[in-house]
Design brief:
alpha/beta; twelve-stranded parallel β-sheet; 7 helices; disordered N terminus; disordered C terminus
């Protein structure tokens, strides 16, 4: 592989990258017709990506294999001049955090339809990593631990169709534009603790196969979880939904907690399935709480829950109806079966039956 200023030798499987400025963006595109061996031969080393980011370049990868661990803590700290060029709202927010440790990625980062074998981490406990451009990880499989905590995303974020084979952490992140995680698979634990979504965020048809922690998250724009699946425990406790929260057709196979959660606008749980504990204790529904066609295998817990808007529950307000309906059916069948047995027993003992 050649240096950062080029894309290496052109092989039969490689796509043309056009005339994109190589001194601004580090580009590597491989086509769908590449064999596994060819991808191995043209693998991108994480250290090359780090060198590009340190040099102020963006990253644009497609269909490639990325090897090695990438520590984003090694990205240089932003200069005073670079900080002055940031939007006023961003500078003001950073000032309120009381930290001078702001590392800067000047361009965007795109790793599409690729495989990342190593870990990508940002582990600063006090500072932040600021990414000026868009971040696109659509269709990429991340085989190593991913820790994108304390990252400020100034551009839109797209992780749609991505797969996290291990943990995926986004703790205390700040998303200034739309964030998309549609059809994303989190195979391990996922954490969005104290993240802030300034615009819309979408997890439609996402799959959470590990513990899903969305605790104390701020959702300023619409939050879309329609069709999402949570196979392990999940928590939204302490979160604040300022706009519509859409959990329509979502499936919660284990415990889910919305304790102390605030819904300012409609909270839609139409068609959602709850197979275990689902608690809304001390939550506030200031808009409509729509559970009208939800199915509960265990009755929802509404202890000290405040409903200022309309509450729509299954079967004319009976939240436990879907839970106890199977019991009624079983009981009814048992009664009918018992009556049939008694009737048959009575007939067998009657004189007419003995004389017949």
């Amino acid at each position: 592989m050649s240096g950062l200023s080029g894309v290496g030798p052109v092989l039969s499987c490689e796509l043309s990258v056009g005339r994109e400025s190589q001194n601004v963006v580090y580009v590597r595109h491989l086509g769908a017709d590449c064999s596994a061996l060819e991808r191995e031969q043209q693998a991108v080393a994480s250290q090359d990506l780090l060198r590009a980011l340190k040099d102020g370049q963006g990253v644009d990868l497609q269909g490639v294999l990325v090897t090695g661990d990438l520590s984003l803590d090694a990205v240089p700290v932003a200069s005073d001049e670079q900080m002055r060029k940031l939007p006023v709202a961003v500078r003001d927010w950073i000032a309120r955090q009381g930290t001078q440790d702001i590392r800067l990625v000047r361009g965007g980062i795109a790793i599409r339809d690729s495989t990342v074998r190593g870990s990508i981490t940002h582990r600063s406990k006090q500072g932040y990593l600021l990414i000026e451009g868009p971040v696109t990880m659509a269709g990429t499989r991340f085989e190593g631990f991913q820790d994108w905590s304390r990252v400020i995303f100034l551009g839109p974020v797209d992780w749609s169709g991505a797969e996290f084979a291990r943990e995926g952490f986004f703790v205390q992140d700040r998303f200034w534009h739309d964030a998309t995680f549609d059809r994303t698979t989190f195979s391990g634990r996922s954490r969005f603790h104290r993240a802030h979504f300034q615009e819309a965020v979408s997890f439609r048809e996402a799959t959470f196969n590990g513990l899903a922690e969305l605790l104390e998250v701020t959702f300023q724009g619409p939050a879309r979880f329609a069709g999402a699946r949570f196979t392990q425990g999940s928590g939204f406790s302490g979160s604040h939904f300022h706009s519509v929260a859409d959990f329509s057709r979502s499936l919660f196979e284990r415990e889910v907690y919305f304790m102390f959660t605030v819904f300012e606008q409609p909270a839609l749980f139409r068609g959602a399935g709850f197979r275990s504990v689902n608690s809304y204790a001390d939550a506030e529904f200031n808009g409509t709480g729509d559970f009208s066609t939800a199915v509960f295998e265990q009755a929802p817990e509404f202890m000290r829950t405040k409903f200022k808007g309309e509450r729509l529950l299954p079967s004319s307000g009976s939240a436990s109806w879907p839970v106890y309906l199977p019991v009624y059916l079983v009981a009814a069948v048992a009664v009918i079966f018992t009556l049939l047995i008694l009737k048959q027993t009575y007939r067998s003992r009657s004189p007419s039956s003995r004389n017949g």
